[in-house]
Amino acid sequence: MTTSADQAAKAFIAAKEALEAAEAAKKEAESQLKLAYAKSGIEMTVVDGIKVTISESSRSSYDAEVLAGLIKPALFKKVTKVAVDADKLKAAVKTELIAQDVADAATKTTTFTRILVAPVSSESKSNARATSAA
């Protein structure tokens, strides 16, 4: 017997798979578009009233250590922000350099819902059924 939860999960899996297929198709189409534009020597075309343009973009990243060595500390403080390295904080708590209650006071936890989809063995399937029936 299929439950509404099973049906909803199947619908979610189908939508997830469709999205993955669409993303793969988009990636392939983008690759083909770039190749076609390069071969044609163009950067823009209009298809069915929609303009499709390829442009070069850039994203910058900054080396804080290099910057710190080049400017005064007060200015460095103005142009940077402090961030906590979660792994290093956990290690400091584990080695008792920082007390757990101190780490807890400085930690903000935000909850959210995730849906995980993964293949399971037939043994796991029977365990899941037994667990959900309990």
The proportion of residues in beta strands is 5-15%
Number of helices: 6
Mean pLDDT: 89
Q: Tell me about the biggest sheet?
A: 2 strands, antiparallel
| Category by helix and strand content | mainly alpha
**What percentage of residues falls in helices of 4 or more residues?**
55-70%
Task: Please tell me what the overall shape is.
Answer: flat
DSSP strand count: 2
User: What letter string, H or E per element, gives the SSE order?
Assistant: HEEHHHHH
Low-confidence stretches: 129-134
Radius of gyration: 26 Å
Order of strands, widest sheet: 1-2
Number of domains: 1
The end-to-end distance, rounded to whole angstroms, is: 16 Å
Can you walk through the features of this model?
The protein contains 6 helices and 2 strands, in the order αββααααα. The chain is mostly helical and 134 residues long. The protein starts with a helix and ends with a helix. The chain has one domain (4-127). Strands 1-2 form a two-stranded antiparallel sheet. Strand 1 (44-47) and strand 2 (50-53) form a beta hairpin.
What is the gist of this entry?
This protein is mainly alpha-helical and 134 residues long. The protein contains six helices and two strands, in the order αββααααα.
